[in-house]
What does this fold into?
Amino acid sequence: MPHRSLIGSRVRDRRLSLSLSQRQLAQAIGISPSYLNLIEHGKRGIGAGLLTRLADALGADAAVLQAAEDNALIARLAAITPDTAEPVEAIVDRFPVWSRQIAAQADEIAELTQDKAALTERAQYDPALAAALHDVLSIVTSIRSTASILVDGAGDPEWEARFHANIYNDSKRLAQMSQALVEYLDGTRAAQDQVSDAPDPIETRIDRIEVDRAMHRVGSDPAAVAKVLGVGLADAMIAMAGHTDADLPQMGLAACDGAGVMTHYQPCDGFMMARMRGACPLWPLFQALQQPGRPMRHVVAMTGGQSPRLTCYTVADRYEAATFDASAAIRSVMLVVADAPSAAAQTVGPGCATCAAQDCAARREAPRLRL
Amino acid sequence: MAGRVLLIEDEPNIVEAISFILSRDGWTVHTHQDGETAAERVRALPPDLIILDVMLPGRSGFDILKDLRGSEDTRRLPVLMLTARGAPKDRDLAMDLGATVYMTKPFSNSEILETVRRLVEG
It folds into this structure.
């Protein structure tokens, strides 16, 4: 939500400049790290009391942080309605509540637009969802065609009874399929919310421009990029996934904690992992957890045969400074590059619930959308 | 002049509906539901026109079409592709492989009847 994200960005920038982790700052102001994560990403607003505590903990002026929010709202409204007769500043000043409401609605529209794009992309790369949608269309076709025959009159009572039975059976299947689709899509949305609420263990302070430059110099090999940047392999991979240069290959990123729970997911063309009921365990992301510190490179192809081949660079490492009194916080990070190499590839799926592969030894449940 | 139509489709109620409307119009309709053996069935008949689904068990309609266009006996046989896959890339692929008409589901009965008449009777 852009009108909140500026204050969140300021909090995040200030925290990083003080070398504070989310956990440390959250503890200092009495909120959970996940709630602070939401604030920093503009997904939660900040009340007056919390703003004061944050400002104190960060050694910043609360008024400066508040002004950031007001300025962000003005910028947001100016972007939505560029041709107002009255200056946007004056509108925000006279109608602060309405201004916030308009900005919030615009954000909601933007989110729905993103959801729609994600679902369209999903249908392209999710074999089970695509198959389910095709099944729905086939059932609808059957009902339409049969109903049309009955409207015109089949001319034979036996045939008419048969077509009535067909319509009844098809409508039952359609209801079941629709229900399964709603549950599936609702579950996907809930899983996305859960992931975005989680603390983000993949922060990077590496300058994006430096990353772009390094990649232009040495290519897409994370080891070479890490060497140029003078950082660890996982940090280099995280930074590479955020590159902003359209001339560089598209990259996706996934990260999980030591228990294999996905904490970050950034898809790219042809790369898709399910999170609702668990991703496919064959992804190198999970294999790397068995050998922390050992970089791995795999070429994979997703089930369904429609997607390009992907190169996966994976490493598991410790992501917080080691202490004597706490267990190691391990993460696995996987950078996915859609560079379509022609090498032999191992097959992976998005996750059992959405995977069309048959006879897979790693399958833990049947596909959810096949009826 | 009505002729012989081979309907290759695995959705039984669609098979029943299309068979009914074509039969009522005077066409002799043969049906086949398996992708793997579909090309053999075409050669064994052979029909005046094929109505071909894309997503079939065993083998996709695209592969079957490619096979038919690669054989002298079936190179010019009219093929009406009937599918739920409406994406432009699928349509382009079908036309590149030699489909005569590409029709997406859901279709109307009159649409399919008129297309069959046009493709066979000219």
